[in-house]
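#help-structures

NK: newbie question. if I give both the sequence and a SMILES, will the prediction place the ligand too? trying with flavin mononucleotide
OV: yes, paste both and it writes out the complex. here, I ran yours:
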Amino acid sequence: MVFSELLKTRRSIRDFRDQAVPQSLMDDVIREACLAPSSGNRQPWCLSIINDRALINRLSDESKQNLISRIEADPDFYARQYEAVLRDPDFNVFYNAPALVLVGAEQTLHSIDVDCALFASYLMFSAANKGLGTCWINLGRDIRAPDLLETIGMPTAIRIVAPVIIGYPAHIPEPPKRNEPKVLKRN
Ligand SMILES: Cc1cc2nc3c(=O)[nH]c(=O)nc-3n(C[C@H](O)[C@H](O)[C@H](O)COP(=O)(O)O)c2cc1C
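OV: that's the protein plus ligand as C-alpha cells.
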C-alpha cells in the first residue's frame, strides 16, 4: 500500500473477528516495528505478547480495578471521565481482542515514552498494512498484581507504556474528524 494511503487506512479498531492472529504474521509486524527510531538508537522497548483471551480479560479487570482505586484517591485523576465504563463489569478495556502487545521499557532510562510510542506507532502501521486492526489502550496499562506481572513476564523494573490490541477488524469505523494544524507562525 502506498504510504499516504496507509496513513488514511489505519484506524483504531475496537471490534474484531473471532480469528487468531497467526504467530508468523505477528512476528513480521513486530520485526517491522523494530525499524522505529529511538533516542540514541537504544531501542529500549521490550514486549509481552498475549494471545490468550482469558488472560487478556484478567488484565482488563486488573487495570480497571487499579484505575478505579486511583480515581477514588484523586478527584483530578484523568480517568475519572471513564469511571462509569470502568465500573461496568462487562466492559473489557481490550474490547475482546484476540491479541495484545504490551510495549514497555526499563523505567530508569530516559525517553521511554517517546521511544515506545514510536514503536507502537510503527506496529500499528505495519499491522494495518497487513490487513490487521489495532488500538492503543491507555486504560489497559495499570497492571500491578505481582502474579499477573509474573504471568506476562514483566519485571517490576519495566514500565508499560503502550498496550496495543491486535486482530482482524470486524468493522472499520469512519475516521474521527481531524482539526486543521495549529501553525503558530510561518517566517
Ligand atoms: C496514547 C493513546 C491512548 C489511547 N487510549 C485509548 C483507550 O484507552 N481506549 C480506546 O478505546 N482508545 C484509545 N486510544 C485510541 C484513540 O481514541 C484514537 O486514536 C483516536 O480517537 C483517533 O482515532 P483513530 O486512531 O481511528 O484515528 C488511544 C490512543 C492513543 C494515541
